[in-house]
Write a structure and sequence with these properties.
- Strand 4 and strand 5 form a beta hairpin.
- The protein contains four helices and 15 strands.
- The strands form three sheets. A seven-stranded antiparallel beta sheet has the order 5-4-1-2-3-7-6. Strands 8-9-10-15-12-11 form a six-stranded antiparallel beta barrel.
- The protein has two domains: about 150 residues, Beta Barrel (Thrombin, subunit H); about 80 residues, Beta Barrel (Thrombin, subunit H).
- It is of the alpha+beta class and about 270 residues long.
């Protein structure tokens, strides 16, 4: 068996195992007594760590015409966000956007974790054995779906995003989130244009579903070009029932993100 086949078998095995063991959102015990984390979730986190570490090593060197961010890089700056309010518990995604004054800053959606969330925690490749309880930093007074959190518990090797940039129509984009509770699901797509919902969003043609809220959207150089906020919704013709398009994403534009971060990070 050559090395390539062996790696493919390992990747396929871990992927299948993740799907089998992941039970989505309902009934997940994310928090019990403060920092105790659900055991199977930690196991999956470690499996994904090994998987994406191997992929990062294999894909670090690519030609310019095939340039894209490695799954290892995307996963390294992506966090598993966990929220709790009363009896409700849920997961989402966050992005490590900066390090300043000894703190790492995590950007996510306001609807994932906000100032009314009783407990907001995270876990990632660099802290995968227990939940880090995050400290609230701020959120926009407007309806803009952003919230900033911070922690000083991540190790020094924790990477942050390379930078921020804009994309144009037809530009390829890449993302990792927790699609339907399946941890660190890789996806890619294209910038489809601009849409006007309750505010202005960039519209991206790429798969997204529950668990991907707060996922970073990146260009081929690894720059953050948007943050997943929601999927488009509409009414079914003639029926009036609501429906969503999980093949498209409403992304918060980088200009909006940069303006928000400047308030807290300078």
């Amino acid at each position: 068996m050559n090395f390539g086949n062996m790696i493919n078998k390992i990747i396929n095995f871990v992927y299948i195992l993740t799907i089998v063991t992941c039970i989505g959102f309902v009934g997940w015990t994310v928090f019990s007594t403060g920092k105790e984390v659900y055991k199977d979730l930690a196991i999956q986190q470690k499996q994904m760590n090994e998987l994406y570490h191997n992929q990062a090593i294999l894909l670090d060197y690519m030609s310019e015409e095939n340039l894209k961010p490695t799954p290892g890089y995307l996963a390294s700056v992506t966090t598993l966000m966990m929220g709790k309010k009363g009896e409700q518990k849920w997961i989402g995604t966050g992005v490590v956007v900066a390090k300043k004054d000894g703190y790492y800053f995590i950007l996510t959606n306001k609807h994932v974790c906000n100032k009314t969330t009783e407990v907001c925690g995270m876990m990632n490749f660099y802290h995968q054995d227990s939940v880090i309880l995050l400290e609230y930093v701020g959120e926009p007074e407007s309806i803009t779906d952003l919230a900033l959190w911070r922690t000083n518990e991540l190790p020094n090797e924790q990477p942050v995003i390379k930078g921020m940039s804009k994309t144009g129509v037809q530009d390829k984009v890449y993302s990792i989130g927790h699609y339907l509770g399946i941890l660190y699901t890789y996806t890619e797509g294209v910038n489809s244009g601009v849409t006007q919902e309750d505010t202005t969003y960039n519209l991206f043609n790429m798969p997204c579903a529950f668990g991907c809220s707060g996922s970073g959207i990146f260009d081929k150089y690894g720059n953050l070009v948007g943050l997943v906020s929601a999927v488009p919704s509409y009414e079914l013709p003639g029926i009036g029932l609501p429906a969503v398009d999980t093949n498209k994403v409403l992304g918060i534009p980088p200009e909006v993100i940069a303006l928000f971060l400047k308030k807290y990070l300078g």
